[in-house]
Amino acid sequence: MRTRQNTLVAEPDMEREDDPRFVVALARGLSILKAFKRGDAGLSNQQLAARTGLAKATISRLTYTLTRLGYLDYSTITGRYSLSVSALALGFTALGGLAVRDIARPLMQSLADRVGCSVAIGVPDKRTMVYIEHCRGQSPLHIGIEVGSHIRMATSAMGRAYLASLDPVAREALLNELCPPDETGVAMRAGVQVAVEQYQRYGYVTSVGEWKQEINSVGVPLTFHGSQPYALNCGGSALLLKTEMLDSVGRELADLAARIRRSLENTA
Predict the structure, then answer these.
(1) pTM greater than the 0.90 cutoff
(2) What per-residue confidence (pLDDT) applies to 78?
(3) Which of 3, 41, 98, 231 is the most exposed place for a label (fewest CB within 10 A)?
């Protein structure tokens, strides 16, 4: 599975000067923190400017402030910034507040052990899905992805499950952002449409080598009234999770989502 690409992270409505409640400086500062990705050894002001779309002078003031506040560490040797322990603590605090992880984890692990593949739960993050829990099966063929990783929304089973759960208007608006106006975008839309029809008919969606070659996966949405939307997936090497297994695994995953939903409702 792929992690998020090095594209701009600034939001289209960053400069919402028409909204007096919107603090542009805060939004810019948060865009700096979001620019860091798994595997980064550190980022310079120039790299941060390229990733966020902000002017280098603005970046310099923001990185200075974030360093003074303790959310960034600065290396005088490399001249680069990295997320500090304080910044990481915010993420762990957020994860710790998600009760769904505690309820879902043993159920996910049980399915992962039976199927031998990875089972994960994620949430939408703008144009991607981010893993918040991940359980591995016993197979040595593992997908290189961990909690906190981002995957593409339109081609992954997890992302398609989330898209399938949206109403048509909301889904179309998001697809307009996700899909480029070319052949690739047309193919992405077609794949999502197939997933929507799968979900309406079977209760789950699939991605067969579309998110990443030689990787098959099944996904289901996990939604609660008035709560953060989630999605589940089960994926692995096509050698292990064969196409003919997707129906049975999809049914198991849908049942898993129902069990998680009941458990959360009972604890509410």
Answers:
(1) no
(2) 94
(3) 41
